[in-house]
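pls read this stuff:
=====
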Amino acid sequence: MDSGLAMFSVIVLLMLVTVLAVGLGDRIRRPYPVLVSVFGLAVAFTPLPALQIPPELILPLFLPPLIYATAQRTSWRLLISRRRTIFWLAGVLVLMTVAASAATTYWAIGGVSVAAAIALGAAVAPPDPVATEAVAGPLGLPRRVITVLQTEGLCNDATAFVVYAVAISAVHTGHYSLPEAVLLFLWEVVAAVAIGLAAGWLGTWLQGHLDNVTARSALTLVFPFATYLLADVCHASGVLSVLVVSLYLGQTTADAGGVSDRLTSTAFWNTLEMLITGLAFGLIGLELREVWPGTERLPAYALHAAIICAVVIALRFAWMMTVGPFMRRFGTRGYQGYREEVARDWRDDFILAFCGFRGLATLALALALPATTPHRAELLFVAFTVILVTLIVPGLVMPWVVRVLGVRKDEEGETEAVQDLAYRASRAALRRLRQLDVEEDLPTEVVQRLRYTQRLLTSELCDELPDDVQEGYEQRRMYAQIKRRVEAEMLEASRAEVLLARSEHGVDPEAADKVLRRLDLRSAHLL
C-alpha cells in the first residue's frame, strides 16, 4: 500500500475509534481522549503504518482549531479577572517547573547539555489546554475549578514556548542571554495580541460581508490557522494570537444572522473538535513506537524518566497545596469577588494539582528537538513518559478521585447565575417592548399578550413559576406539550414525503433540500 494512503487509513481508523470511544467513555465514565491514547499505545507495535507527521506541523495542525473551540467557552472578562491565576500558574509555576525539571535532567542524565535540559524542561512544564478541556471537562467539576484549569492551559504555552525557543537557540549557538530572553518574551506576547486583534477585526469585517451561513462558519475555521501561521512568521506566540482572535470572533451579535450562525457553528465545531481531539490523542499513543529505546536501554531510561516525572508531579502538588491556601488568605485583599473565583478548600487544590495533564504541546516540542541534540532519544522518552503518567493515569482515576473527595458542581450557584441572566434578558425584552409601544402605539391586547408570553418564557428559563400564573398553568403546559408532539409528528410526515419525492423523476433535488432545511429549522424551534 502506498505510504500516503496508509497514513490516510490510520487517520480514518483513529476517527472511527474516537467515535466509538465517545460512546464507551459515556458508559464507563472515562474521558474519550484517554481511551483513544490507550488504543494508540496498544497498536503502537502492530503492523499498523506509523502516522508520521513532521514535528513542526503538529502544533499548527492541531492547536488552532482546538484552542478556538476551548476559547469559545471563556471570555475577555473572565481572563482579566483571572490575571492572578495567569501570573501564579501560567507564569511562576511554569518557570519553576522548567527550572526543577531541567536541573533534575542535567543531574540524572550524564552528558546532557544545560541548554538541552532546559529545552526538555520547557517541553514538560506546561499543562495542555486541550487535554485539560477534554479530560477534566466532562467530570462535573465546579466551574471555578474548570475555569482555573482553562485559564492556566490557554496562557502557559506563551511562557514555555519562549523558554524553549531560547534554549534551542543555545543548543545551536552555545550562547544564552537573559536580557534577550526577556525581550523575546515581551515581543511574543505583544506581537501575538496585536496580530490576534487585527485578525479578529478582519474576520469580523469579512463575516459582515458574507451572506452565506456556511461560509461564515468556515471562516471561523480558516482564521485560527491563518492567525497561527502569521504569528509564527513574525516569531510571536501562535497560541496566544489564536486565543485572542478566537475571543474576538466569538463575540457574535444577537440578530437573526447571529442565530443562524450559532445553530450552524455549534454543530460544526462540536463534530470537528471531537474528531481532531481524537486524532491528537491517538497520535500521542502511536508515538510510543518512535521513542521506544529497546530492551537494553529501557531500564536506565525508565529510571531517569521516573525521577523527572516525580519532580514535575511533586512540584505541582506542593505548589497547589501551598499557594492555594495562601491566595485564599491574602490574595483576596483589595479585589472584591475574587474569593469566589479561587479554589475554596484543600479539595479544590488537590483536584487542580491532579489535573496537570501534559499532552500535545509537550509531544510537539520534544519531537522538535534538533537531531544533533545529545541524548535526544532519551529526552524524547522522558517527555513521552511524562505525558503518559500525567495524562492517562489521572484521566482513568479522576472520576474515582472526584467521587471520593466529594467535589461536585455548585448546582445552586449555577442555577442562580442562569436565573440572573434570564431576568436580565427579560428586562431588556420588556424595555424594548415599551419603546416599540411608544413609537408605534401598539394595540393594548397585543402588548398585554406579549408581556404575558415574556413572563412565561422567563419562568421556563428559570425553571420556576410566578404565583400569579400558577392557576391553569399545568393544563396549558400539557396542551403545549401535546401541540409540540403532534406538530413534530406532522413535520416528520412532511419530511418523509419530501424525501420520497426527492427520488422521483422530475423532482429537483436542490428544491427538495431547500424544503427539508426549512422543515428542519421549524423542528429546531420546537425543542
Summary: The chain has 21 helices and no strands.
